[in-house]
Amino acid sequence: MCGIAGFFQTKYNISNEQTYYFLKNKLEKMKNAIKHRGPDDDDIYLSGFLNNNGFSDKTEFPNNIIGGFVGFAHSRLSIRDIKGGHQPMTRAYKNHKATIVYNGEIYNTDYLRKMLSSFDISFETTGDTEIILYCYLVFGTDIFKELNGIFSFVIYDNDTAIVVRDHIGVKPLFYYHNNREFVFSSEPKGIFAYGIKPMINSDSWCEIIGLGPAHTLGNGVFKDIKEVLPGHYLTVTTDYHHNVKVKDLCYWKLKAKPHIDDYNTTVDKCSYLITDSIQKQMVSDIPICTFLSGGLDSSLVSAIVQDNLPDKNLNTYSFDFVDNDINFKSNAFQISRDKPFVDIMVNHINSKHKYLECNNSNQIDCLFKAVDARDIPNMADVESSMLYFCNLVSKECRVTLTGECADEIFGGYPWFHRKEMYMQNTFPWSCDLSPRIVLFKDDFINSLPLKEYVDDAYETSINQCPHTDGETITEYNRRKISWLNIRWFMMTLLNRMDRCSMYSGLEARVPFADYRILEYVFNVPWEYKCYNNQVKSLLVECGKKYLPPEILYRKKSPYPKTYDPTYEKLLGTMVIEEYKSNNKLQKYIDYNKLIKFINSPKDYGKPWYGQLMAGPQMLAYVLQISYMLRKYNL
Fold first, then answer.
1. Which residue in 136, 165, 178, 535 has the most C-beta neighbors within 10 A?
2. Which residues does the Swiss-Prot or TrEMBL record annotate as the active site (predicted)?
3. Which residues are annotated as a binding site?
4. Which residue positions form the known binding site for L-glutamine?
5. Pick the CATH number of 263-413+452-552 from 3.40.30.10, 3.30.70.120, 3.40.190.10, 3.40.50.620
6. How much is the pLDDT for 64?
């Protein structure tokens, strides 16, 4: 895993030698902004180019501009080919030369290497970066759909930049574009380091208040910041007038088609795909570990990893909060604590396990670090605690496999099963806007097209949902809720996992997010996904070979959170102090509403987002908003 950043621009005249040093300094700043994603190695690449129409006489261009500069910055977390994977990397095949800057992991490198075996290529490394680059040089952009992995990369080829993101969007890639500049980075902060000023507008607030911590795919929340869509690539070129032009192309998308396999065949294919994905994602030149919550998903991943480790010496980690054994309150979303089930799994697979705990101070301190990591308000303490835990794990292991995405793909959440939730004409994990606006000033909220914005985001999403001819209303609604989860809720959790892990230089892999699994399971009928009313029945069947009954049939319980009442009191005190000291926050938050909210009891069982974000998390979210306003002088 790594961090990437760079630009393709014609703003500065390449005939001026001072421009080179000016842009080199920008690249260094961009590289430093994303250094946390790759602390082991770094470098930059900077090259001038002429207009891609082949003109070389500067008198043919306005302002004597005859070309531009392409720049790449890379920070590396060394996982594979520790000595040989230095980037940016340049290779040539039959006088066709290209340069790449790449973040991610490709899991089918053996297959790709075989595709290249009949060509006259001498590899200099054993890593996947070189394989991607040679595959592109030989096969062109058609190769992108053949890559199995999590990735974002940019290739510079003959005065064109090609900007690529993986099928599902596990690895982030943001960009800014105007007539003379295209600037990209793994995180928005890399774009800001180039010199683009962070700004927010009405749409930004609608994203933060109406949809957050989710955000619309392709929307970078900050004004004029976008993200490359999953399964897409951009071509960045110049025209005759030397303007920078961007074309958005799709190389893969999820399709609806009839499912022809019977139940037993479906189980067999799911079992193969899951096992194969986990085995492929174990590839590493350094030791790997897993996150183990004692739930079905992480337990299945951990068991299969342990089963395939030659030395059967797997390190596993679980997360909880100090005194949760005393303060935990069971509710409709969070039924049980993880620890008893973790104990069962540790004994079952004989892993080397660590129980990690987070206290109030750790969690609050990381609220702001989580904004540093994500650049925007996020899942509050659900995210800050994950960031804290990832930091602890990174001190001992640099690669982990997790159970993320299984619930979204296989139908584990309550809104898959409760008709009153999946039949709503809005996002079921965030169906009521009222708790989202309870602390904001009325005139500010009334100035925003909040409901219209959310409704439009929902309608746009469901209109993009693929479907087959002849689907019944029930079948369509089942497919729709699956689509919404994949495009929205799953992306929020993937963003959380990427930023929390990479903030500490930890690579988190998500085997359930293999696009082959998604392609297949998306078209499996609901009666197979919930066979005999068993939640995630396909995963249960897959797990029978690896897991004890207590784990197979455990009722879903989400990522843990603290139930310590002291935490809520600390948040209340902090929010009041933040309000009084930050005049930027005073423009948006109503002080009287804030005091009333702090003094009223919070309902932990009625979240305003997902399953965990209730009253205390709204206070934490406001703290994160305030920190973002201060950090970026918004």
1. 165
2. 2 (for gatase activity)
3. 128
4. 128
5. 3.40.50.620
6. 47
Q: Is 318 helix (H, G, I), strand (E, B) or coil?
A: strand
- Give pLDDT tens digits for 191-229: 999 999 999 999 999 999 999 999 999 999 999 999 999
pLDDT-derived band of residue 603, with 50, 70 and 90 as boundaries?
low
Q: Which of 397, 391, 331 is nearest to 363 (CA)?
A: 391
Token look-up 């620890």 returns: 339
Amino acid at site 206: C
CATH class given for the domain over 2-250: alpha beta
Count of all residues that appear for the chain in the document: 634
- Output Rg (C-alpha) for the chain, integer angstroms: 25
Contact (Cβ atoms closer than 8 angstroms) between residue 134 and residue 93: yes
Is 2 a residue of the active site?
A: yes
Residue 122 CB burial class (10 angstroms; 0-12, 13-18, ≥19): exposed
| Domain range list for the chain | 2-250, 263-413+452-552
413 close to 166: Cβ distance less than 8 angstroms: no
| Long-range contact set of residues 429-435: C-beta below 8 Å, sequence gap at least 24 | 429/489, 429/609, 429/610, 429/611, 430/211, 430/214, 430/608, 430/609, 430/610, 432/608, 433/210, 435/606, 435/608, 435/618
The active-site residue, picked from 2, 358, 390, 405, is 2
Q: Model-level pTM?
A: 0.94
Contact 512, 405 (CB under 8 A): yes
In the numeric block, the tokens 């009949």 are attached to 118
Q: Over pLDDT 70: what percentage of the chain?
A: 94
Residue 16 corresponds to which amino acid? N
